[in-house]
Design brief:
By secondary structure, the protein is mainly α. It has a domain at about 510-675. Helices cover about 70% and strands about 0% of the residues. It is extended, with a radius of gyration of 37 Å.
């Protein structure tokens, strides 16, 4: 009896263990499928997101199988779930690593071919579409499962379409439709072929392929999309009456209620394309005002088109910007989201340029008026009469004369005003031509710039732009006129060189930053505060002198300002943010010394550092150039003497104060991060 009982007990334990790992796998699979279902449903909903919690649970339970039941027959399934769940969670690097683990551990798994499909998708999502295409092309001939082969061809087509390689995309979509066996990808592939032919402007092939979509077993959603694509093709082909008739018929049929919003949008676009601005605007507004269409792709598209009409037809830029700004919030999946955001930025730039012109235009006009219509001024040729005047009176008259000269506007201000004015005009011309498609307005501004005579650095640039536009418009005579004018103005112009040779030598970039850096260097010996101000300006944004400027600030804080806390802060920025700069090595050495000094200052008074250990006053001569410090720095011996001449109490008090601040801030990394001197540097 005991032996039988033992056998029964063993069988019971085995069964329980078997049920345990099966139940664990079953739950992992269940949550994995729930996650996929939630993801797919989110694709059909407006502004919907999907929860990743189901995939987290699926991963956790699959990892439990790998750890507790390594001999389970579901071990490869568990690894598959972990890899693909990470893909759906958008952890693509982790997914790639888990897929490669699957290939290494389970090369003979029945799931290997399907995993190859996901491997290509990971490459695609990680920004390597060419590798994805290469992988799928290699694997497709060996795939026996027609459904999977069809999906591979379809995915290759998707990638080529994303890369704007329409011919290759059409080729692989067509291969998808020719794979034997029923597949949900066949109808989608055929639809994409029709859509691509429409983009290419081949209306006959577009209509032909739209009709072929109906040959496949397609979903109701794809049937609706097919009908809308056909209407769009009719509209772009200019068959407006045919399209209108079809739309009105479908709007009167309750069966089409689910896509009435799209039908109304297409109708509004037909009015717009025919030049019926009033009817188009009315229809677009009825779409955005209809509560049943709220948050739909159609209403988001309507906001975009309203914005475009305010911009292009009515020139109401504030109203245009407002409607462009509503697109993304209405539906983030709308195809016009990116374009709308770009339009908002363009209109902000337009507003900024207009504001600049409001300031500079009156000043420029006044100056030009004075230049073109000068008043007759009687020239004073009488010398300063010093007869019967004391030296003090003569001195006062000379000082008054000098003060009057100082109050007169200097030419540099005039030059700057004119440069700002013509720069604004040129930017306005660019906006009108490239962004708003107002060619006449663009040419008006360019001609105004080119015709000016005074203080104008944009004449050659504008003449080249006018030549470029005339050449595009096939106006050869006008193009030659602008080219000849450019040659007369400056035969050595880099723009003329480009027209004649195809190569252009533009002035050195970052010239402003270069001059600012040189000026700051010249201030180091005598005006360290002014030098720091200029170096900080260069440290605020990315430019070739940013790292050197930060290093110079650190050096000045240490050797001129005797500011221990800020010396440490700025040297730390050099070490962290500019590791490839020559000054980074010196910065790290300085940090060790200064941090040790800051720490020592916190010891009890009896342990205070010796006088000669207070603060390094000089930088070794062989490392000065590494920081970008000019050769004309004060003599190091004189610097040391200057430091030694400072009373001990003052030296110690200054360093203690800086050291206390440094130690008080120690450990408070969040606060220090907020007050970092170089705001836009990513550590």
């Amino acid at each position: 009896m005991r032996r039988i009982e033992k056998i029964l007990l063993l069988l019971t334990i085995t069964t329980v263990m078997s049920c345990a790992y099966y139940n664990t796998f079953y739950n992992a699979r269940l949550y994995y499928e729930m996650g996929i279902k939630d993801y797919r449903e989110s694709l059909t909903k407006t502004n919907a997101t999907y929860t990743k919690k189901n995939f987290d649970i699926a991963i956790e339970k699959s990892e439990r199988i790998l750890a507790k039941y390594p001999d389970s027959k579901y071990i490869d399934d568990a690894q598959f779930i972990i890899a693909v769940s990470n893909y759906y969670k958008e952890n693509y690097r982790k997914a790639k690593k888990e897929i490669e683990t699957f290939f290494n551990l389970y090369p003979d798994s029945e799931l290997k071919t399907e995993m190859d499909m996901w491997y290509g998708r990971v490459f695609w999502k990680m920004g390597n579409p060419e590798m994805a295409i290469h992988h799928w092309k290699q694997m497709a001939p060996e795939v026996k499962d027609n459904e999977l082969k069809s999906e591979m061809f379809y995915s290759i087509g998707e990638v080529f379409e994303e890369l704007n390689k329409s011919d290759s995309a059409i080729y692989y979509y067509d291969k998808t439709t020719k794979v034997r066996g029923g597949s949900e990808k066949h109808g989608l592939a055929q639809y994409h072929i029709a859509e691509l032919y429409l983009k290419l402007g081949d209306m006959d092939k577009a209509i032909d392929n739209i009709e072929k979509v109906g040959q496949f077993n397609i979903s109701d959603e794809l049937k609706q999309k097919r009908q809308l694509l056909l209407l769009k093709t009719y509209r772009q082909a200019g068959e407006y009456k045919k399209a209108e008739k079809t739309i009105y018929k479908k709007l009167n049929d309750e069966k089409n209620k689910d896509f009435w919003d799209q039908l109304e949008l297409e109708l509004a676009l037909i009015f717009k394309d025919q030049g019926d601005t009033a009817s188009a605007m009315s229809r677009f507004k009825s779409i955005v005002d209809n509560k049943t269409y709220a948050k739909s792709i159609a209403s988001a598209s309507a906001y975009y088109h309203i914005g475009m009409m305010f911009l292009m037809d009515f020139h109401r830029y504030d109203a245009a910007a407002k409607n462009f700004g509503l697109v993304k919030g209405e539906n983030k999946n709308c195809e016009y989201v990116f374009d709308a955001e770009q339009r908002v930025q363009q209109l902000k730039r337009f507003e900024k340029i207009n504001a600049s012109l409001l300031i500079t235009k009156p000043v420029v006009r006044e100056i030009l008026t004075n230049l073109n219509s000068p008043q007759e001024i009687e020239i004073d040729t009488v010398a300063l009469d010093t007869t019967l005047k004391t030296q003090e009176e003569i001195k006062q008259e000379l000082e008054a004369d000098q003060a009057e000269k100082v109050t007169k506007p200097v030419q540099i201000d005039t030059l700057k005003t004119f440069e700002q004015y013509y720069n604004a005009l040129y930017e306005m011309a660019e906006l009108y031509y490239f962004d708003f498609n107002f060619q006449d307005s663009a040419k008006y501004y360019l001609r105004e710039i080119a015709a000016s005579q005074y203080f104008n650095p944009f004449v050659e640039q504008s003449l080249y732009a006018l030549y470029y536009i005339s050449d595009l418009e096939k106006d050869i005579n006008l193009a030659n006129f602008y080219k000849e004018t450019l040659q007369e103005k400056n035969p050595d112009s880099p723009y003329l060189s480009f027209l004649e040779t195809g190569k252009v030598q533009l002035p050195e970039t970052n010239e402003t930053e270069k001059l600012t850096f040189q000026k700051a260097e010249s201030y180091i010996p005598d005006k360290p505060d002014s030098a720091i101000i200029l170096f900080k300006q260069l440290a605020e944004y990315e430019n070739p002198y940013q790292g050197k400027s930060v290093a110079n600030i650190a050096w000045l804080m240490e050797n001129e300002k005797y500011d221990l806390q800020n010396s440490i802060r700025w040297y730390q920025v050099v070490a962290d943010s500019f590791p490839n700069e020559e000054a980074a090595v010196l910065a790290k050495e300085k940090l060790q010394i200064l941090n040790a000094l800051a720490t020592s200052l916190q010891k009890p008074p009896e342990e205070k550092p010796a006088k000669d250990e207070v603060l390094p006053a000089t930088v070794p001569s062989d490392t000065i150039s590494a920081i970008g410090t000019p050769a004309e720095l004060p003599d190091s011996t004189n610097q040391q003497k200057a430091i030694e001449n400072i009373p001990d109490s003052i030296q110690i008090e200054k360093v203690k104060e800086a050291g206390n601040d440094a130690v008080q801030n120690k450990g408070n990394s969040e606060e220090n991060e907020k007050t970092m001197p170089v705001k836009n540097i990513k550590k």
